[in-house]
């Protein structure tokens, strides 16, 4: 009986301190030189899958760099060397797309990654497909025709 409690306690401690590889970090910082129309709440995606949102935007004093804080809401590890793109959306809603690297080490909340602003004309076909899906979702979302008292 005591062994089960000991193993359970060790497992919980290992989760808290990241020994099992699970990172308690749920924020990433990306440095951009141009952010265009980004705002808090902008969606963050990997391979089209929403994994989080922009939680804060912090410019430097001379405005040459803008730090964008990403809150990751699912348990995913982002490899070091991954590319962060701020993509313009077809409907005007920007998206941060992450293209994962093949590195075996992972970003933590202490790391700062470089981000790139990518105008609509520079988007790849997969990013354009993602924007088309946004349009479909907006067109097919339920609407309220009228409000009755």
Please provide a written account of the structure.
The protein is an alpha/beta fold and 149 residues long. The chain has a seven-stranded mixed beta barrel with strand order 1-4-3-2-6-5-7. The longest helix is centred in the N-terminal third of the chain and has 16 residues. The chain is globular and about 45 Å long. The chain starts with a helix and ends in a 9-residue tail after the last helix.
Main β-sheet, spatial strand arrangement: 1-4-3-2-6-5-7
Stretches with pLDDT under 50, minimum 5 residues: 13-25
Q: Could you tell me the radius of gyration in angstroms?
A: 19 Å
Please give the largest β-sheet.
7 strands, mixed, barrel
Beta-sheet strand percentage? 25-35%
Overall shape: globular
The total count of helices amounts to 2
Helical content, roughly? Answer: 10-25%
Note the quaternary state here.
single chain
